[in-house]
Specification:
alpha+beta, Alpha-Beta Plaits, 7 helices
Length: about 250
């Protein structure tokens, strides 16, 4: 595994392109609340499988720690999120670092903490993930990062990746060529929902989509515009099955 500190969306895109041919897995953490010259900084992680002969422990490890209680909502503020992100970015001292790691922390970093969702308190959290086309993607992503910073509602865990050109055969598939950003936002009620509506408008204007599998509040209008093939999907739905998501975004039972 190699981890590389990057200083903006442009460098992230360069690393993504550079890694396409020689690395099987790539993913990046991004500081979504950094401002000024630090905006868009993050850590790019790429890896290939090591030989089976170097496997040194069992295939899957148990969580090492457990969140003992629901964190008070007052702890989840812009200052604590900014402090966490600064520490996380700064923990890697060098520009590039190489290491051999087990696949658990590479693929499933949150599995190291049992009941990690309790960190977000009793109000819980929203997941928000979108994809935007490569064309104009850098400028759109930078605009979205500025909006998040201005709102003072950030994310401890923000993951940025790119999707390639391979077309998915699924009717309701989310991936399309472009940049995708996934964020977890502490639930602050109306202010969080207002931010999402503003982000929706930017994603929509860029020709992007939201990820339905992580959605809890997308409007029916945005869903139908993003996934026009939804009208062909109901024939495959078990008539005895109904979900609040499907009723919300289609108006069907």
């Amino acid at each position: 595994m190699q981890s590389i500190k990057f200083e903006g969306i442009e460098e992230f895109l360069e690393l993504s392109k550079e890694s396409d041919s020689g690395w099987e897995y790539t993913v990046s953490w991004i500081d979504c609340v950094a401002q000024g010259k630090d905006m868009g900084r993050g850590i790019f992680m790429r890896g290939n499988h090591a030989p089976a002969s170097v496997l040194s422990r069992k295939l899957h490890g148990d969580p090492k720690v457990k969140a003992p209680f629901d964190c008070p909502n007052i702890m989840l503020n812009s200052l604590s999120i900014k402090a966490f992100n600064s520490v996380y970015y700064g923990k890697q001292r060098t520009k590039r670092a190489n290491a051999r790691v087990h696949y658990d922390p590479f693929f499933y970093p949150l599995d190291a903490v049992n009941a990690w969702n309790r960190i977000y308190g009793k109000r819980g959290f929203f997941q928000y993930q979108f994809v935007i086309p490569f064309e104009g993607g850098q400028e759109t992503m930078e605009e979205i990062l500025r909006m998040i910073t201005k709102s003072k509602q950030g994310s401890f865990l923000a993951v940025i990746k790119t999707f390639g050109s391979k077309k998915s055969p699924g009717l309701m598939s989310f991936p399309k060529p472009g940049l995708t950003l996934a964020l977890d936002f502490p639930n602050r009620g109306a202010s969080t929902l207002k931010l999402f509506e503003e982000l929706d408008a930017v994603v929509d204007a860029a020709g992007g989509l939201l990820y339905p599998a992580k959605d809890a509040r997308m409007s029916a209008a945005f869903f139908k515009k993003s996934y026009p093939q939804w009208e062909a999907f109901p024939q495959y739905v078990d008539p005895k099955f109904s979900s609040s998501f499907w009723r919300r975004v289609t108006g069907e039972a």
